[in-house]
Design a protein that fits this description.
single chain; alpha/beta; 7 helices; globular
């Protein structure tokens, strides 16, 4: 009779020496993801339009050469090309990419008053940015992959891809497009590169901004109580899930959209 496989120890720092690019990461959810990677032993290149916020991250983290900042506009292909080149120049490889950059305000106003240029801006930032960053990182991601360990892309969408408030069509379309982009790219890029998506629910980011702008979120007991887990989310919650999807331990998972909303999508709504 054959013996079952033995217990396999899990590494205490699953991202040890792995390099991850995170867009829109000087504040909010992006910063939470970057900090999770650093906490797991990884190295990060954070890209953001806000230079002051990016430099503040490096000053506060104090992790030396394990973290770098690069000014990035994900809607401009030359910017994205320089971003990936900077990662290769400094770190020599790319093991993971997190497409987090987007316009955080979901409210675009009534559709009949929405200008085409503004509609395109929502799509270009979230969906177009994910396309450009993936396009320019894929070659390096393939090169870093081994037969045992795939590289990984994680796209940050939103529960607004499935449920919306009035006047959020542009934001919902951009995030819904990210979900579809995820499963299509997972088929094209596999098995060397795994591609997954996270759709956060209510995640206040007030305390995760740059110095001088941080504040305690104004939350009521009812705000927490309506979530089956008993509280609203934090950037650290999304960071922990992204860390799993980026790490070698999630090697059988690709093409999926993970809803991280504290159970709200599964909660029964009674009249």
């Amino acid at each position: 009779m054959r013996l079952p496989p033995p217990i396999t120890p899990h590494p205490a720092t699953p991202m040890q020496d792995r390099v991850v690019l995170v867009t829109g990461s000087a504040q909010g959810i992006g910063r939470g993801i970057a900090q999770a990677v650093l906490g797991a032993g990884g190295r990060v290149l954070i890209g953001d339009l806000d230079v002051d916020a990016g430099q503040a991250c490096l000053e506060e983290w104090q992790v030396g050469e394990r973290a770098r900042f690069h000014k990035l506009d994900v809607t401009r292909e030359p910017d994205v090309r320089r971003f990936t080149q900077a990662a290769l120049k400094h770190f020599g490889r790319i093991d993971g990419l997190v497409n987090n950059a987007g316009i955080p305000d979901p409210h675009s106003g009534p559709l009949q008053e929405l200008a085409l240029v503004d509609w395109n801006r929502w799509l270009a930032t979230s969906l177009g940015g994910a396309f450009l960053c993936s396009k320019h990182a894929l070659a390096a991601l393939h090169e870093a992959a081994t037969s045992e360990t795939a590289s990984a892309i994680v796209n940050i969408a939103s529960t607004r891809a499935r449920q919306s408030e009035p006047d959020t069509e542009a934001y919902a379309a951009a995030k819904g497009g990210l979900v579809a982009f995820t499963h299509a790219l997972a088929i094209s890029a596999g098995p060397a590169v795994r591609v997954n998506c996270i759709s956060p629910g209510w995640v206040p980011t007030d305390a995760w901004g740059k110095p001088g702008e941080r504040k305690r979120p104004k939350l009521r007991k009812v705000d927490h109580a309506q979530h089956p887990v008993g509280r609203v989310g934090t950037p650290g919650d999304i960071g922990a899930l992204a860390l799993y999807l980026l790490s070698p331990g999630s090697g059988f998972v690709t093409g999926q959209d993970f809803i991280a909303d504290g159970g709200m999508a599964r909660k029964m709504q009674y009249a």
